[in-house]
Amino acid sequence: MRYSSGAIEALIDEFAKLPGIGRKTAQRLAMHVLQERRPEVEKLALALLEVKDKVTRCTVCQNITDLGTDPCTVCTSTGRDRTVICVVESPVEVLAFEKTGHYKGLYHVLHGVISPLDGIGPDDIKVRELLARLQPGTPGEVREVVLALNPTVEGETTSLYIGKLLKPLGISVTRIARGIPVGAELEFIDEATLSRAMEGRLAI
After folding, report:
1. Exposed, middle or buried by CB within 10 Å (0-12, 13-18, 19+), for 9?
2. Cis peptide before 71 (omega within 30 of 0)
3. Which end of the chain is less congested by CB atoms within 10 angstroms, N or C?
4. Is residue 62 within 8 Å of residue 109, measured between CB atoms?
5. Quick one: CA torsion of 77, 58, 147, 140, rounded to 10 degrees?
6. CB neighbour list of residue 107: distance below 8 Å, 6 or more residues apart
7. Which of the listed CATH numbers 3.40.30.10, 1.20.1070.10, 1.10.8.420, 3.40.1570.10 matches domain 6-56?
8. What is the pTM of this model?
9. How far apart are the first and last CA of the chain?
10. pLDDT, tens only, 30-64
């Protein structure tokens, strides 16, 4: 269905470009904006512009931070374990780990994974920046790097690549455990997940 308003169609088209947003959802969002009071819409527009104008990347961990707060609050926190760095693909994973409240180390965001089919190589992600943090003589002594990349072919390739680079540095390289989700029944778990759960079993 096409609306008689070009402005509405343009807004729907823009919303539909967002990840995970289909055209029907884009239509609902556009109609919601249309029905909102102007001050509320202006707040939304201002928030969108401020994200582009005021958000940057931390020069240490590559996570997102506000302009004027670099290094970020995680990197400068005195309460973090500075001997451990968790390597993730995007800032979304940092938020996921922080929500758990259990991980107290530092982070490093790669902003992607190695994917030859997409033309993305090691130089296209933040691997060099990670290595710079681990060189002898850098402030703090990192003893462990935790690879927490998604269990995809690209994630596995990236983990193997980083693992080989870090091995000569004498730093312990670990991976997050993968296995059975809480509340799941074993009969419904696929073979690959069961295999990983068995390989990553823990002592009790």
Report:
1. middle
2. yes
3. C
4. yes
5. -50
6. 61, 63, 74, 85, 86, 87, 88, 94, 97
7. 1.10.8.420
8. 0.83
9. 59
10. 999 999 999 999 999 999 999 999 999 999 999 99
